[in-house]
Write a structure and sequence with these properties.
single chain, Rossmann fold, four-stranded mixed beta sheet, binds guanosine-5'-monophosphate
Length: 208
Amino acid sequence: MAKGLLISVSGPSGTGKGSVLSKVKEINPSFGTSISVTTREPREGEQDGVHYFFKTKEEFMKMYEEGEILEYDEFVGNYYGTPTVALQDMSEAGTDVLLDLTIAGSMALKENFEQSVTIFLLAPSYEELENRLRGRGTDSDEAIAARLEMARQETNYVGHFDYVVVNDDIETAAKKILAIIEAEKCRCARNIELLEDVLRINKEMEGN
Ligand code: 5GP
């Protein structure tokens, strides 16, 4: 059986990754989810083992050293990592998994798994990104300026990803991600058994 794809979506904060990924799952609930390990404090309403596995830095590093975390990155002073076994089990079982990772996380996935698909989500423009960040009403002017500067640095990496999607509308962006996944499944390189069958049948017909 073909391994499930590991589809990771990255993009600067304010691009709408969370909303787009929720929409993808709403349209197609069959995707697996990788629950990350983090050292950040839970936000209101977040549950351990549902949104994240919340750990101390010591616990996190111990897990990493013992091979329980396959990639990790630091984001605004906290560690975030992908648990190894759950991800491998889902992929081996043929389940496609959606991941919401930092850029370094997506790059690590791309390096280590041939079944990975990396997607960079872009805001339509920096003006729109700034509007979205201001619209959240959670950040000071300084924090917004810092996030925009970070966005400028992050978008330099867009060319290292397999795909780029502009999020000008959540549903449209979600449908583009679903289309990318469907196209990836049709790649000849991901359908070796089918190709072998075709060649075998052709050989048998030649013999008749
Ligand atoms: P938040 O604190 O808003 O939940 O997440 C902050 C950032 O961490 C997001 O950009 C998200 O993509 C990233 N992130 C969450 N889990 C992981 C992970 O397991 N690995 C990596 N590399 N990044 C992650």
